[in-house]
Write a structure and sequence with these properties.
Blueprint lengths: L7 H14 L3 E6 L8 E7 L2 E10 L5 E6 L7 H14 L4 E6 L3 H11 L1
Parallel strand pairs: 2-5
Antiparallel strand pairs: 1-5, 2-3, 3-4
Amino acid sequence: MADGRLTASVEAAGLVRRAEAEGGFAAILRKGDADRGALILIIRTRGRYAACLERALGVDGLYRWTRVGPDESTDEAKLAEFLEKRARFDEDSWLIELDIAQAERFVAETISAG
């Protein structure tokens, strides 16, 4: 890409490899635009929902991972509803599920590295 960012497909593949390298499970549930699609991560630990993250453009022009969607105490139906709405709103977006040990650490590291 002209701005030096990785394409969405390359970034998605890297996130999958990172999760698997740490002994977790990763799956791309929905592929979006290969170049510019937004990435939405569903973070789980042993199947239990922990957070949703999205790479968002800040007012300073930099992309950062931010928490979006329901909090960790939400039920699966509300999570599914949120994800369906997001997919309808942005048809180019990607949906990636990562089931990893120490999900909160992964989220914190990802947000600070974003």
